[in-house]
Amino acid sequence: MKKNLLATLSLFFTFYAAFSQEKKPNILFLIADDWSFPHAGVYGDPLVRTPTFDRLAAEGALFNNAYTASPSCSPSRAVVLLGRYPHQNEAGGNLWSEFPAQYPTYVGMLEKDGYLTGSTRKGWGPGEFKVSGMEHNPAGKSFKDFKTFLAQRANDEPFTFWFGSTDPHREYVPNTGIQTGMYLENVSVPGFFPDNDCVRNDILDYFFEIERFDRECGQLLKMLEEIGELDNTIIVMTSDNGMPFPRAKANLYDYGTRMPLAIRYPKKIKAGTVIDDFVNFVDFAPTFVESAGLEHPTMSGQSLWPLFAGEKQNRDQVFLERERHANVRKGDLSYPMRAVRDHQYLYIRNMMPERNPAGDSTAHQSVGQYGDVDNSVTKYLIMSLKGKSQAGKPDYFKLAFEKRPAEELYDVIADPYQLNNLAEDETYATVKAKMNSQLQDWMAKTGDLRAKEPRSLYWDQVRYTPTYQFQDYDFEQRLQEYRIKPPFGKDSREGIPCLTNLQ
């Protein structure tokens, strides 16, 4: 242990010395809202067009195994800012809660070090930060846009800027994807959705917003080029959590937690670098702080600079978690989960399996029925399939909305959509025991309250800040509001329940 500590300290001082002798780099953090891996051109998606992301990957590093620590907006964004796991951030482990201002953010640390700091649109949130005594969003003082922010910069003042898009968060303008020339038949539908034109069209609208985010990021890169700061800026492009569809966002399966990630900084990152090691969002803050030559004693993540330099780090697995997402269970209850993912298996512990992972079947406060799933035609379609499973096809309703066992285990190579739970298969008993032990050790080491009290009510009792309430909706009626015409140039198809207002 002492030897490992000395080695870690040695690496830190090596990178501290390297950065302290150079002009301090700027940081541009580009974060989408609900974008899943592998929906980018450079990852091989045949449809969605992401030239800016692809450029950053080509000129810097592309990550194949980057994971958000929690598949929920506020907890994920707190992790980015604080470099601490969600369970270490107290109330900040929940959506719509209060920011834990007692811990320093990388933005605040850089501001004290002389950086100009700013943000636009969605920073940390949703939730409250002023109640914690903060004057502005933890992601930085709010500016109209990046251009306005840069106008405040004096001479060669280093800066960190957070561009928080609301794309591709719902709701979507219907048919935006298909109107840009994308075709239904080219969509790759995840195996936990029914494969029909309604779902494919919903995915196209999601792709449209990914493309809009990518274009806006490209405009920010152009501004950096114009002021001569492109190569002196650490540029990170990623998302906070997975796509706003059933069994994705707010879930610990890959479509909820596995994120697109590219980082460009030619002074330290070789063009065309591809990283298969696991990276967790707790790693961003220590990486940024070290780039300014600062220490980070309260942070749990590993800096990425040794990884870029070819040093071996403990990155053979990644740990994931969630607590209360939306307030969608009677009694304001959480749905606590912990997980460990390696290159072959995903192991999940559902701490309170008697609760419904998607929320109550009737509206409690937020969203509507099964409110941890964003409302959409895909959601309504799957809700309409209750009790209608077909031979040879997954039970889509069960996968999305029904209760889950205390343990789940998936072979992610053989089962990339995590459909076949192997936890009760004796063939995998050794694997399950090993991963359970790894998970428990990590929970204990990082001070997770659920290591000793797996059924703790702490996150149930954390304040949920919104006061508005939703009512139940007639999902069958909502479903009938959706109709679709076929793509341009195709023969007419009748009776497909989707959207009809194509122009």
| Strand tally | 16
CATH class of the largest domain equals Alpha Beta
CATH architecture of the largest domain: 3-Layer(aba) Sandwich
Which sequence of strands runs across the widest sheet? 5-7-1-8-10-2-11
Main sheet properties: 7 strands, mixed
Over the alpha carbons, how many angstroms does the gyration radius reach? Answer: 22 Å
What's the rounded overall pLDDT mean? 92
Keywords: Signal
Organism: Algoriphagus pacificus
Protein name: Sulfatase
Overview features:
16 helices, four-stranded antiparallel beta sheet, GAG_Ulvan_Degrading_Sulfatases, alpha/beta, disordered C terminus, 16 strands, single chain, seven-stranded mixed beta sheet, 503 residues, globular, signal, Alkaline Phosphatase, subunit A, disordered N terminus, Alkaline_phosphatase_core_sf, Arylsulfatase, C-terminal domain, Sulfatase
Brief description of this entry?
With 503 residues, this protein is α/β, with parallel strands linked by helices. The chain has helices at 2-20, 51-59, 73-82, 106-112, 146-151, 176-179, 197-226, 254-257, 284-291, 305-308, 377-383, 396-401, 429-445, 449-452, 458-461, 475-480, and strands at residues 26-32, 61-63, 66-67, 97-98, 116-121, 127-128, 159-164, 233-239, 258-259, 262-264, 273-275, 279-280, 317-322, 337-342, 345-350, 407-411.
